Amino acid sequence: MSKETFQIAKRPGFGNKGVPIRVRTNFFEVTKIPDMKIIHYYVTIFPKVSLRLNRKVFNHFSEDYQRVLGGVKPVFDGTKNMFTHKSLPFQDRSFDVELEEDNAPMGSKRPFRRFTIRIRKTRDIFMDDLFLFLHAKGNMTWNCKRAITAMGTIISHEISINHPTIRNLFYTSQGAKPFFGGIEAWPGYYQLVRPTMGKMMINIDSSATTFYGGGPLIQMIVKILGLRSPDDLRGRLSEREHQKVEVIIKNLWISDNHIPENRRKFKIEKLTQNSASGTTFNRNKINVTAYFQKNYSRCLLYPFLPCVVVGRNYYLPIEGQRYNRYKREWESDWYYWYYRYYGRMGYRQMDDIFRFTCQPPNVRANKISQGLSILDYQNNEYLKQFGMEVSNNMTVVNARILPTPTIQYHPTSREKRIEPKGGVWNLRDKKVATGATLSSWSVLAFLNLHNQVIKHFLRELITICNDTGMNIVMRDPPICHVDPSENTEESLKKAWFMAKEKARVKPQLILCILSHNSSLYAEIKRVSDTVIGVATQCILSKKAINPKKQYCANVCLKMNVKLGGENSFLIPEHIQFVADQPTILMGADITHPSPGDYKSPSYAALCGSMNARASHYIASLRVQTGHAEIIVDLENMVKELLRTFYQTHRLKPKKILFYRDGVSKSRYIDVLESELTAIKDACHSLEANYKPTITFVLVKKRRHTRFFPIDRQNYDRTGNCPPGTVIETDITHPFEFDFCK
Q1: Using CA atoms, how far apart are residues 364 and 35, in angstroms rounded to an integer?
Q2: How far is Cα 359 from Cα 356, in angstroms, rounded to an integer?
Q3: How far is 318 from 272, CA to CA, in rounded Å?
């Protein structure tokens, strides 16, 4: 598809509805942009190594060859791009760099590892195009892109030397907090150069991640197993304990200390199956315990524990090794390891992380200020070299609080229409717009919960459901108790048959009661959605034991929608464009597996509105290759929704409003071109002359923009900006139609 088939909308103007306010945002103005040309060089390092070694090799090169570089301090992005503020005295030249080898064979001295770094000039970057672009007088040219890349590298180069860095994030031990299981949460900061209306800004936000706290490896094992001290290790690890420890410590860097004058670093590959006393090596078949006693006069205190494997036939006892707080020379795949480990955290650790990262607005603002002091732009020698200056103050921008929408409930409600206050409301004195009928269902308890407790909860839930307009025909559904360790699919089928046997009709819903630490939710949804074909509603046992009316009302709303009901809708005046002509609203997103997981698939979802109120939706799902950004089978998914819309109304939509979530900035055009083509092809395949108006809205993912209200009257109850706050000036695109909310 050629680019002429679509047009990225330019900003038509600015809105004026709502109450104008002023807010602070975590954007810091670049008050002085480099006005000289920036010289771009390509860097190639032989042999090819990871990102952390790339940076280390480059930093050694920059320090060792300052005379050759003519006093210039180049900046490097860690991959291949280097920038200088003036030309170097050569166009293309190679240099030798030597680094000490970390992974020397056991018993040998550290050799030097030799690298060759080649510096080759590519072209000059002129800043004129960037100034034109910022003032809406020019497009995003190659010069613009490279100028923005260069500025991003300039601000991040020094911080990457002194702190562990992952893409646009860096982390610091200042304010680190230890958690259960031998891990620590470290605060971090995000920084990115962004072009805005007439200015360049730096977006700074607080972040966090999990690290291992440095210390003796034996202490980490103790923490992983939930013990108090190494004295609690009484014997060999059980199979389950062995697996648990191995999963967590695999890929961890440790340093040995049995040769104090020659400490080296190793990466753990796995644990031995046998203990140190039972693990033998070399021709003499000497075991590790005896070897350390003979060669290093070290008597192992825990010979019954396994050894760590750090290379082919290299075994180290767990005691006496220290694991590193972090690897200063960061592995390129370390980012993925955090997430792999994070995915294995227990509920206690997850709760700790949540409390550590969930911050009220004033605390987050202070954290951002702390990050700014760590970045210390004012004293950054690289910024000074390029003539860049950055403000220390958050940017103050204009915003508007949009009028509160009116929500409609059933006409027989005591309160038919409401305008939510502060973005929240409840079901008191209201009935759902269209109540569903529930005549065949069952309860499946994945724990030992007394029937009387469950029946008391059901009475409360059914009362609330009937009061809010649902029709619960079966008031005493069958209750099925199962052990959570049993096969989930068989358990759900059992509950399904119990409901069918009692009601004599196909079951509509299975209410599942889970314990707080249950991991069954995903499997329940998989089986119910793809195997059995029945709606499920999961609740926690602690909520069933002490049922609250508000909680039951929330469950009622979920059940009603799953059964085909309609809870509420916006009054027609708010969405006149939907009512004026047949219009379908679509929303699409992709759920990806964890970073580093290249075996699991991604799941693409598309939903579409089926009525003029835009309150009833159907969905279409696909499984596709993991981490693929573009929805592969979007054409057929769109066709499914358009056919259902036509079958419902006997009309074809004249307008399609398509919201696409989860797209990174670098993939905007790729996703837009591919998926807009798929939507058009879907329309054309249904009817050759069917050409509805398509509006494609991209929703930015992982946005680090934060807003902080200035005046107390504009705070919500949590200290945030009130719901409906929108920003469309100052920090938005120089001329494209975007906004923040």
Answers
A1: 34
A2: 7
A3: 11
pLDDT band at 664 (very low <50, low <70, confident <90, very high): confident
Sequence-distant (6+) residues with CB within 8 A of 207 are: 169, 171, 187, 188, 189, 190
Which tokens is 273 given?
């199956």
Provide the angle, in degrees to the nearest 10, between the axes of the packed helices 361-375 and 142-162: 90
pLDDT value of residue 254: 87
531-553 average pLDDT score: 95
How wide is the angle at C-alpha 450 spanned by C-alphas 444 and 451, nearest 5°?
65
Tell me, what's the pLDDT at 107? 47
Q: Are 449 and 544 in contact (CB under 8 A)?
A: yes
- The C-alpha atoms of residue 606 and residue 636 are separated, in whole angstroms, by 11
Query: What b/e sequence results for 218-227 when a residue is b if at least 16 CB atoms lie within 10 Å of its CB, and e otherwise?
Result: bbbbbbbbee
**Residues 130-175 pLDDT 10s:** 999 999 999 999 999 999 999 999 999 999 998 988 889 999 888 8
DSSP 164-199: -EETTEEE-STT-EEETTTEEEEEEEEEEEEE-SSS
What are 569's strand-pairing partners?
A: 408
Are the beta carbons of 507 and 534 closer than 8 angstroms? yes
Which residues, in sequence order, are bridge partners of residue 570? 407
- Cα gap 201→29, rounded to integer Å: 4
Distance of CA 624 to the CA centre of its chain: 19
3-class secondary structure, 154: helix
Look up the pTM and report it. 0.85
